[in-house]
Amino acid sequence: MTEPLAAPVPSRHPGTAPADAPTDASGQAPVRTRFAPSPTGFIHLGNIRSALYPWAFARSKGGVFVLRIEDTDVERSSEAAVQTILDGMAWLGLDIDEGPFYQMQRMDRYREVLAQMLARGLAYHCYTSTEELDALRDTQRANGEKPRYDGRWRPEEGKTLPTPPAGVASVVRFRNPPGGSVVWDDAVKGRIEIANAELDDLVIARPDGTPTYNFCVVVDDADMRITHVIRGDDHVNNTPRQINILRALGYTPPVYAHLPTVLNDAGEKMSKRAGAMSVMQYRDEGYLPEAVVNYLARLGWAHGDAEIFSREQFIAWFDLAHLGKSPAQYDPEKLKWLNSHYLKAADNARLAELARPFAAAAGLDIDAGPNWLDVVALIKDRASTLKELVESAAMFYRAPAPDADALAVHLTPAVRPAVAALREALQTVEWTRPAIAAALKTVLAGQGIKMPVLAMPVRLLVAGTTHTPSIDAVLTLFGRERVIDRLAHV
């Protein structure tokens, strides 16, 4: 086997390390996974799932999780997109052990490997023009053949190559093995075999010398000692090419796990063009990170019938064997249901802090009303998001504006005496929930009416809406002065 290309020292090229990586006590190389997004726009749930699984696998195995930014598409890459990736991962708690590393900062390393490959005969210069390639492919299609490069500049024993044309910059092509097959056991898809005859000699450097995606990925994975590549199945076609380059360089390929596509709620591939939301938009809509992580974990992986589990349980349970083989479909209602569960279970103080920015955005002065923490504790069981929580809490911080038709229905002449009696009773009662509940029962008994008959008009007058938690809890939070004043408007 060819000796692996020596990697440069880490001080020159961050993130690189010798091919003879250290092993743990068992003699096995430690698990090293990576997330390698392109910073060409916002990151959606389908993208971030490709970070969650390698992160969880590294954590479950006591390994290392690497973030690599594949920013070689200079025209489309942006600092804003990089920041969106970093923000999304930080919000979800996907902490990285190494990186972020940027491919554009590793160009010297790529050129170094290219030069070594050319010197070893693993790659060669090709001067075929774009026009020649187009004509070749047109002919092949006309003959019913698969369009592919025909190897006209590939050096072979006994073959005389054309004279390089003057003034024409060459690409660099990898010398793909001429026979046999590329075989790997995909951790999701099972055994995959691709005949080398199906793979032409891949361009690994453009005429201006810049390396191509498949080449950069190989050098990065080798230098960073990646043991497991967990990524979307849109990369399956790249894998045999990458394996061949890795093997030519003397490296053992990592374990590959190609994840099925995430479909949107319409059954189409989740994408920015198809209306997918940015991960950060979920934060801005009031979702909790633990709910999104739980939801994403089940969007292509399962541990028995478990639907709700903590981050710690997810890490302990995660494995590659139970990754799903079929596309997973995004269900916004299920995510909302999960979020409502986590809202109910959340610490009230934490929830009150998280909800503060939403209250400010809604124009609520939460210092000019009932205690915010108490309001959040009362309302959270009725909300699916922090936004909904604040919408429900708004009644405590705004003057009531009950609908006239609702008032006509609920505040009838027959019920007005009961409202007046309650107002009278509440002026002297101890201002606690049990005492207010007792006052309500006394008025109901004295007036001979049921709770809804009295509670509905009281809700409208005090809160401006009929949709509130238990009336005694609501009145307690509003405070005696506000309640007495608002019940006077009968």
UniProtKB/TrEMBL annotation:
Function text: Catalyzes the attachment of glutamate to tRNA(Glu) in a two-step reaction: glutamate is first activated by ATP to form Glu-AMP and then transferred to the acceptor end of tRNA(Glu).
Classification via HAMAP family: Glu_tRNA_synth_type1
Native source organism of the sequence: Robbsia betulipollinis
Record's compositionally biased regions (Basic and acidic residues): 141-159
Region annotated Disordered, chain positions: 1-30, 141-168
Superkingdom of the source species: Bacteria
Motif 'KMSKS' region, chain ranges: 269-273
Recorded name of the encoding gene: gltX
UniProt record similarity statement: Belongs to the class-I aminoacyl-tRNA synthetase family. Glutamate--tRNA ligase type 1 subfamily.
One Pfam entry name: tRNA-synt_1c
Principal location class: cytoplasm
Gene3D superfamilies: 1.10.10.350, Glutamate-tRNA synthetase, class I, anticodon-binding domain 1 (1.10.8.70), HUPs (3.40.50.620)
EC number: 6.1.1.17
Alphabetized GO MF terms: glutamate-tRNA ligase activity
Residue positions binding ATP: 272
Designated name of the protein: Glutamate--tRNA ligase
UniProt domain Glutamyl/glutaminyl-tRNA synthetase class Ib catalytic: residue ranges: 31-337
Catalyzed chemical reaction(s): tRNA(Glu) + L-glutamate + ATP = L-glutamyl-tRNA(Glu) + AMP + diphosphate
Keywords: Aminoacyl-tRNA synthetase, ATP-binding, Cytoplasm, Ligase, Nucleotide-binding, Protein biosynthesis
Keyword hit for Ligase: yes
Assembly information from the UniProt record: Monomer.
Motif ('HIGH' region): 37-47
Residue ranges with Low complexity bias: 16-25
Lineage summary: Bacteria, Pseudomonadati, Pseudomonadota, Betaproteobacteria, Burkholderiales
Enzyme class: ligase
Residues in Aminoacyl-tRNA synthetase class I anticodon-binding domain copies: 350-489
Location in the cell: Cytoplasm
